[in-house]
Amino acid sequence: MSHSDPSPGGHVAVLGGGLIGRSWTALFLAAGKSVAVYDPDPAAKARINEAIDAAWPVLTALGLTQTSTPDADLVLCDDPRAAIEGAEFVQESIPERLDLKHGLYAAIEPVLGRTAVVASSASGLTLSELQRGWRQPERFVLGHPFNPPHLIPLVEVMGNERTGPGVVDLARRFYESVGKVTIEVKREVPGHVANRLQAALWREAIHLVNEGVATVNDIDTAISSGPGLRWAVMGPTLLFHLGGDEGGLTTFCDRYADSFNRWWDDLGRPHLDTATAQRLVEGLSPITTRDDINNLAAKRDALLTAVITATHNKCGQNSQT
What kind of fold does domain 195-290 have according to CATH? Predict the structure, then answer.
């Protein structure tokens, strides 16, 4: 086994057994890895096992399981130093508080393997903020997934001038070896890439609700039964290229520039204050009172499995690329 290239057969540590950490754990086990999970909560073991059992049929349907059962390859630890022992790749997913993350990094750095790569799942914190918890952050990168990580292929990977040469590429190869699709974030901005895109869309959805243009459910339906279907197979710029017919994106931009500029000038700038949040909660209540969160998640996962099966191959590469 090469010490310079994390291997699909290697040992992985997952730091944090919350929603994201449990999902990562299921994926890594499905990929045939041995996994050590650190979580100090005594109740974490039951939650992790339950999450793995729930994820396994989905992972099997996607062709991502290389083993029939994950039980023999999972170890739970209440000490992060024990969890990272021998790990070639470490996925950190503890709560997004800098003091907690910095404390964890300080605990593991002295005993971390020299060639191990550590990635943080952080979505709201920046790489430079996270790096302040390390004396030597050369092997540390951002590895931000989309929830749930065992199902949504995307991982956003980022390094900077303090990241060692080739470490971003190592992280990307590791993720791709377990079926993920990676992009590289080349400049630090709050929210990275995908979160900013969905935040922009949600901002306008909230504005339309606040302005009484449509209900919460109808706006969600407008996405899931409209452009959301197209976005599952191609990104917006490539789709608009197709919208230009034989002239492609050049024709599309020439034809629709005035319309888009008018729409952009009219977009709202709401804030997610208490009143707005309550309006959204009430707008979803016809659905959320009928289906509990577990049933809704199961429906989501079943539909996502069908979409991913149709649009991605087993190596996690989009069928359009």
Answer: N-(1-d-carboxylethyl)-l-norvaline Dehydrogenase; domain 2 (1.10.1040)
